[in-house]
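Notes taken during the Thursday session

The instructor put the following on the board and asked us to keep it in front of us for the whole hour. The protein is Dehydrogenase/reductase SDR family member 7. We were told not to look anything up and to reason only from what is written here. First, the residues (339 in total):
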Amino acid sequence: MSWGLLLWLLALCALLALVVQLLRFVRADADLTLLWAEWQGRRPEWELTDMVVWVTGASSGIGEELAYQLSKLGVSLVLSARRVHELERVKRKCLENGNLKEKDILILPLDLTNRSSHEMATKAVLQEFGRIDILVNNSGVSQRALCVDTSLDVFKELIELNYLGTVSLTKCVLPHMIERKQGKIVTVNSIVGIIAAPLSTGYCASKHALRGFFNTLRTELTTYPGITISNICPGPVQSNIVKNALTEEVTKTTGSTADESYKMATSRCVRLMLVTMANDLKEVWIADHPFLLMFYLWQYMPTLAWWLTNKAAKRRIENFKSGVDADSSYFRSVKKKHD
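Then, after some discussion, the predicted structure tokens were revealed:
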């Protein structure tokens, strides 16, 4: 075989590989590393069985669905949130549809803003199950208001709950994991922990802070390879996050009941989260297009990403000021154009 023919074949193979990757990306609903792990990596059903998993924000949305899927894997569950009656409801459904018994689920009411209670809560989990294998930091609240109109109390609440509360609980659990030299700390961040989005200045700030904290914490744990830090960055997912989002005052939420059919199904997002845990991935992006594309543009083509973001921001703010639901009206139109 001549060198010319060999080079031609190599170029053809490279071109075919590129085409395959492009086709995978067009159909993707997560970053390609995560999708590869889902296809060829370790299965949650093999890796997570018999673990003790503590889930905050377990009373609704992603946290609730995570509890249901974990209950089918034979784990021991700790469910935390502020609304005890909702936690009881989630527990009942886990027992009805999962593979767990009463003794396998602990309901532990928790307010992340009450940082003085976190040490006691951690001790309660250790007393009940003897260990914490996985901490899932899922609690949080979003925001829908222009910065100029927003009370400083809203920013304080967002930082207290989304950032400081999460950091506080992590610091309480971390010494136990260091002592055992193993554990997984999984934090549900957001697409806006990477990019920027109007009407969410305080929320974006809290999520950017979380990403910076956990990325840096990972560097401090290099001598403990058994302890893994995973940042989960979802795009729009079906949940109550917009309904419960703060507005310009800390006492007001949007109460939005807008259609969320354009968002990713919660069950799909959670399944990909379980794959992340099973494969110890450091950071994952979970979103349908065009939101997944925006992750990549912000990472690799920031100038173009800023141009697109500013165009989108102008329309979103106009919708917000005119009283039109800023999320559904804009995101649905963008997704329709992409499709």
